[in-house]
Amino acid sequence: MDEREPARGTQGRGEVMSAVRVLLVDDQPLLRTGFRLILEAESDIAVVGEAGDGAAAVELTRSLLPDVVLMDIRMPGTNGIEATRRIVRDGAASHDPRVLILTTFDLDEYVIEAVRAGASGFLLKDSPPEDLVQAIRIVAAGDAIVAPSVTRRLLDKFATRLPSVQESAPPPGLDTLTDREREVLTHVARGLSNAEIAAELVVSETTVKTHVGNVLAKLGLRDRVQAVVYAYETGLSRPGQN
């Protein structure tokens, strides 16, 4: 089904609440049907289309304008990583779809590649239905559902696959950060929460939140997970570093 569906649900006194528009991407029709049944039971989620491969997912994202693309990572032809890269690259201020990766194994090298490509998180295919629904809502709101600590564990395992860093050349964008922002980024890369960073630096949690927001804005990053990847790619953080 590729047609657009109307928004559903209400909020407040007669105020219409737009449903989260979801595109399902998986090469197994039965899995897509299962996901559709789960999601269509929710009043604030609308499945607007389905795709069986990455190339179709990119085209349907352009035409259907989903808020969230639920993306299988391993598919014949254009896989979920390449499709994610194209979707994120095509994103604009008026339509910036979020990609939620579906995978079978959490410690999978394909997962970190998908996160580097711009995915906002990943979810195991055998996760409970309520986790799937909640993940879509979180991603649609602009947050990531992969904890930075999990991202770091993945990066530690697959760090040798990341691009090498030239010690003589300053990492791109890093020189735009203040010393404090750079320090905060280092702590984010360790997988620490705002509260934990605040305790480490002896500042308020609000101050840390402001610093994190500045870091993301200056470096053009979508979320904290992307910040962890950036820290590893630039050599600011290294495997096994505490």
Structure commentary:
- About 45% of the residues lie in helices and about 15% in strands.
- With about 240 residues, it is an alpha/beta fold.
- The strands form 2 sheets. The chain has a 5-stranded parallel beta sheet with strand order 4-3-5-6-7, with helices on both faces. A two-stranded antiparallel ribbon has the order 1-2.
- The chain is elongated and about 50 Å long.
- The termini are far apart.
- Mean pLDDT is about 80; it is low at about 1-15 and about 165-170.
Which key features would you list for this structure?
242 residues, alpha/beta, five-stranded parallel β-sheet, two-stranded antiparallel sheet, 10 helices, elongated, disordered N terminus
Give the structure's gist in a few sentences.
The protein is an alpha/beta fold. 45% of the residues lie in helices and 13% in strands. Strand 1 and strand 2 (15-16) form a beta hairpin.
